[in-house]
Amino acid sequence: MKVAIVADSNSGITQAEAKELGMTVIPTPSIIDGVSFLEDINLTQEEFYEKLKDDSVNVSSSQPSSYDISETWKKLLTEYDEVVFIPISSGLSETMHSAQHLAEEPEFKGKVFVIDNKRVSITQKSASLDALALAKQGKSGKEIADWLMETSMNSSIYITVNTLKYLKKGGRLTPAVAAIGTLLKIKPVLQIQGAKLDQYAKPRKMHDAKQIMLDAVKKDLDTRFNELYKAGKMRLFIAHTENFAEAEIFKKEAEEYLGLPVEYISPLSLSVSVHIGPGSLALACAQVER
């Protein structure tokens, strides 16, 4: 039984990484002044942020087309027996629902498993790596899908933003709230707990925001993930938006404070970055089986 593992680029897995790992990543479109660009195909992180920071340019995110998804599956099924597709959480995009409908087509039914793994970015990447490890162990598509569903809520992400500008621009803050927040120099900490981006805390300094994220993850490890933590099945991950130097510093702080290794640092996916803006940091924990 050969099972192909597929994620979308919201996972932060680059095309080069995917090739090296032996998996497939479907690029997520970014719409810039009405023109569609594909992440890591004809749009780099640097080009994206250059456009995002230009107030005269309209930048938004979209989802992969059903045609691109189906063509990817068709190609893989000529080489593999089954496909497991791990898209961004259904709470953050309609990609999963569109793909699930597509998987009911006769040519895919019973061969393609679309998983609402409730993940995005660094935790979605972790789930994809676990799925890949399970596939290499000879697990079937259904067995991998079942594991991904069983563990879907065993992760947390906390994000601090450097500016409220992009949350306001994306309609996640009213102009009045954004104006007050900017005046008070608030560096809000947001959270993703499997569904959507929600407010967690409102510190005024990046130093305080980082400590809040560290304390939040520590609380998760000591409470709802305690059994997994004691069993050695929890790991840390860090994401950032155009902020790699600070992410490396934060990695050392997180490892020292939490006593767990940070498995990797990754750029935040562009579909989330469009709402967050540059200069952000994120800390996550998730269950792993690899």
Q: Sketch the topology as an H/E string, one letter per element.
A: EHEEEHEHEHEHHEHHEEHHEHEHE
In whole angstroms, the N-to-C terminal distance is 20 Å
Number of helices: 12
Number of strands: 13
Radius of gyration: 19 Å
Strand content: 15-25%
Which stretches are low in confidence, meaning pLDDT under 50 for 5 or more residues running? 172-181
Structural shape: globular
Helix content: 40-55%
Structural class by secondary-structure content = alpha/beta
Main β-sheet, spatial strand arrangement:
10-9-8-13-11-12
Query: How many strands, which pairing sense, and closed or not: the largest β-sheet?
Result: 6 strands, mixed
**Average of pLDDT:** 91
Please state the oligomeric state of the protein chains shown.
single chain
Task: Tell me what the structure shows.
With 290 residues, the chain is an alpha/beta fold. The chain is built from twelve helices and 13 strands. The strands form three sheets. Strands 10-9-8-13-11-12 form a six-stranded mixed sheet, sandwiched between helices. Helix 4 links the parallel strand 6 and strand 7. Helix 9 crosses helix 11. About 3% of the residues have low confidence.
Write the layout of secondary structure elements.
Elements (H helix, E strand, L loop, with lengths): L2 E6 L6 H7 L2 E3 L2 E4 L2 E4 L6 H8 L6 E3 L4 H11 L5 E5 L8 H8 L9 E3 L6 H16 L4 H10 L4 E6 L4 H5 L5 H9 L5 E4 L4 E5 L4 H17 L3 H5 L3 E7 L3 H15 L3 E6 L2 H7 L4 E7 L3
Parallel strand pairs: 1-2, 1-6, 6-7, 11-12
Antiparallel strand pairs: 3-4, 3-5, 8-9, 8-13, 9-10, 11-13
Helix pairs in contact: 5-6, 9-11
